[in-house]
Amino acid sequence: MPSTFYNGLSKEGQILVNEAMDMIRPGYDPQAHLMGRMVDGKPHYSARGTMYYALGLMLLEEPGCVEEVEAIIKAVAATQYDIPKEIFHGCFDKQTRPACPEGVLDYERLGLYGRYYMDVFYERMVDAFRLRLQDDPALAEHAAAIEQHLNLSTVETQPIVWTNYEPNSREFVLMCYAMLLEHYADKLSEECIRIIEHSSRIGMEGAIVRSKTRFSPLNTNIQCMHVFLLDYFGVRFDVKEWRDYAVEYAEMMVEKYLQYHGAAEYNSPTYCGVDLATLGFWGRYGSNERLRELGEILESGIWQDMMIFYNPAMMNFCGPYSRAYELEMGVHTNFHAMLYWALGEEKFPLHPVTAETNSNTLMVFGAINLPPEVEKGLTEPKEDVTIRRQFRELSEREDPENNDALCTATAWISPDLMTGALSGSENPSYQLHPLVVFWRGGKGLGTIKVLRSAPDGDMQHMHTVLFDGVCDREHLTLDVDFRVNRDVKLYFEIEYPGVCASAEISADKWLLPGLTVALDAKAPEFFLEKSECGNILKVCYMSRTRVKETKQMHFDMVLKLG
After folding, report:
1. How far is the C-alpha of 363 from the C-alpha of 222, rounded, in Å?
2. For residues 447 and 438, what is the distance between their CA atoms, to the nearest angstrom?
3. Where are the alpha helices (DSSP H) in 185-288?
4. 20 to 30 Å CA-CA from 374: which of 44, 154, 194, 356?
5. C-alpha of 323 from chain center
6. How far apart are CA 418 and CA 411, in angstroms?
7. End-to-end CA distance of the chain, in Å?
8. Widest Cα–Cα separation across the chain
9. E strands, 270-327, where?
10. What confidence tier does 33 reach under pLDDT thresholds 50, 70, 90?
11. Nearest to 296 by CA among 284, 279, 308
12. Residue 482, H or E segment
């Protein structure tokens, strides 16, 4: 028998919950009471995904759900670090990552600049170490293995963010905790409530240290959750400092946002969807009027930002993206699910199952407040729309006092072709997409994006590889500056059904299905890489450590449909 909350959802909300549970359920390990599985004797579990499942169980109130959820809560809490004075205090998923060494990192004395220069010096040292290995005939063939051992030794002796611990997991798990406490506390045992409250308290302690020290910067979606949780648990635990900090932090977010009317992850369908879903919690559960007002400003503004770049004809956002995963929105975003829920099936029937569908069980506890003027921009066709917007990004690994470079996004949208480029970015993230093309061909949607990686394809954070791109309708230019002492592979990734067999690629022209690209490339000789499935083709260029001529590249592209 579904819960009262589930029965109060719209038909669309109920469908989103059912789709999420259909997606999540096969991955649940009932023995471990966690989402994931053992692989080669090692656990691969997700506290965040597990809590989405727990919410879904309570929404549907299936037989035995309370007992199972209580077992889940105990299992998830057991994956949390409870070690005050450590930078990873309150983080989850400790079973699935290399253990965090304790008592070796005094982050309070180290400070922001110490952390930054540790990163910079380590990167320089590894780059120099790599070159020495390559120059020694006795070691060159073992260079990769030796470097791997060096990296493993570092992980074993220092807690490395995103490797040993994942700080964002706290906010996602605590959001789920809050909804269990808010809507299902009467069904859970006192012991379970105590576990949730203790886990929430230490999670908040660690999260507040992170936000106040800025030791590991918060992205916009985590900031949105952090503010909600400060307010919610500040009320529940009667901690006035947390409630005051929630408003203070929200004021700071709005002030920075209004400077350029843009969040740090600008035009990011992956992350802006989480921003919007979470801001709905501010309005629904916020304990004071000012917090709710600030949430409305951000929510309305981000909806308007997203509307500008959305192309209804292609059901996708035009690039460029400061941070995103796959380009195709049917793979990695909850944005269409939000529109389906907000507008209803009759107006917006699209709601594909994506990598973010599992979060539907949390999203439905909030609210989607779609401004009326935005609905038109998200549903009516766009023809010959030129866009130029500025924003301040978040560069997580840059100088802590200078990690918000001013960027300019340019884009062009038409029903069958859209282009986008980014300039000014200093973002080292592998999720950066500084040049993007979408076109509509006979077999569906085609995309082109620019990425960079190590020669072996490892998509690590590439520090100081800078892009300067400009888009003007069917014309794009891109300059790339490789300020790094290592080999880097730059590539244009073309995705289209059967493109590996059908494309004709030369130095100055790409003949793609439904699209011709005239290319003037001031770059080393290219080479091609083809995917086994035949749907992804990479046009690659190498920047070599000791070859000065490969340190700057320039690309001029003219596109023509047909």
Report:
1. 15
2. 5
3. 190-213, 220-236, 240-260, 269-285
4. 356
5. 6
6. 7
7. 55
8. 71
9. 310-311, 316-317
10. very high
11. 279
12. strand 475-482
Per-residue burial over 326-342, b if 16 or more Cβ lie within 10 Å, else e, is bbbbeebbbbbbbbbbb
Task: Quickly tell me which residue has 């059967």 as its tokens.
Answer: 498
Q: How far apart are CA 17 and CA 332, in angstroms?
A: 17
Q: Give dist(CA 477, CA 555) in Å, integer.
A: 6
Q: Is residue 147 within 8 Å of 129, Cβ to Cβ?
A: yes
CA 472 to CA 106: how far, in whole Å?
Answer: 50
pLDDT score of 210:
94
Count of other CB atoms within 10 angstroms of residue 472: 13
By DSSP bridging, strand 42-46 and strand 417-423 are unpaired
Q: What is the mean pLDDT of residues 329-357?
A: 91
Amino acid in position 483: R
d(Cα 276, Cα 299) in Å, to the nearest integer? 6
According to DSSP, residue 550 is labeled G
Which helix or strand (DSSP H or E) is residue 16 part of? helix 11-24
Mean pLDDT highest for which of 233-247, 265-279, 389-403? 233-247
CA distance 554 to 541: 11
Q: What secondary structure, in 3-state letters, does 53-88 show?
A: HHHHHHHHCCCCHHHHHHHHHHHHHHCCCCCCCCCC
Q: DSSP class of residue 433?
A: B
Length of the chain in terms of residues written:
562
Contact 80, 203 (CB under 8 A): yes
d(CA 60, CA 20): 12
Query: What one-character DSSP code corresponds to residue 161?
Result: B
78-82, 94-98, 185-189, 513-517 — which is least confidently predicted? 94-98
d(CA 375, CA 344): 12
User: What are the structure tokens assigned to 526, written together?
Assistant: 């290219």
Look up tokens 């380009």; give the residue: 327
| CA pair distance 484, 462, nearest whole angstrom | 8
Q: What gap in Å lies between CA 3 and CA 1, rounded to an integer? A: 7
Q: Give Rg (Cα) of the chain.
A: 24
Tokens of 154: 């570092």
Q: How far is CA 543 from CA 127, 481, 487, 526, 557, in A?
A: 14, 10, 6, 11, 20
* CB contact at 8 A, 237 and 201: yes
What six digits make up the tokens of 361? 């069980």
Which pair of tokens denotes residue 311? 């192309």
pLDDT for 327 equals 82
CA distance 561 to 517: 9
